[in-house]
Design a protein that fits this description.
The chain is mostly helical and about 260 residues long. Among the domains are: about 50 residues; about 90 residues. It contains 7 helices and no strands. The chain is rod-shaped. The termini are far apart.
Amino acid sequence: MSRSLRVSTALAVAAVCCSGFLPGGTGARVAIAQESVLTELYGEGVHAYHSHDLIRAYDLFTRAIDGGLNDPRAYYFRGLTAIESGRSYEAEEDFRAGAAIEARNGTGASVGRALTRVQGTSRMMIEKARTEGRLSAQAEMAADAERRYSGQRAVEAEVLQAPPTPRPRPVMPGVQPLPVPVAGAPSPFDNDSAAGQPKVQSADALEDAMVDPFADDGAPAPGTAPAGDAPAMDAADPFAAPPAGGAPAADPFGADPFGS
């Protein structure tokens, strides 16, 4: 183990030990210390790989992965180490595992920088695994969305088919609630003749509109003589001129009531 790794491990152990005397945040401190140690193991493994120390590199990457390092680069480099050691099948498994983590976490930029020095067939295998991982992640997301949407549609259909729940009528203090009508009870708006044929009162709606309400039922028609021996009234014009040779009619307005 290198000096830097020993120092990092000692610091992590000290942080874990000291966290027991500090209130709160113990789990977070332990996780940070463990992540630091695992990241240091990965870094040492990358240096060993580029130095062609394949056995040590493979061991460091395995320790970091088994410790819980959720970094796709550790899987990619362990796969590269397995390829150069003649274990292509193990390399393909590590490439697929790293691609799945990368598709979930979205750490493409850091992966591209780490793999800058890796070229040739090994890089092509990694890129193929990365593409398949992205497609698989997209298909899984689409399937999850479809399941959620199908469940939502099923719930909506169940709600629409269920009969509505009657809500209680609000009661105000001091106000007598109206009686609830009973099915089949008579209504004041029911038509009495609903059971039979409707009756027409009159075919002419204006039949009685021209009758004089002030006319006397026993009065004679205009221009006719009244009943009995009473002489008929002259229907002539009272303002007509007198006949020729006759005496003029007396002027009813001729006498001066004031004697002038």
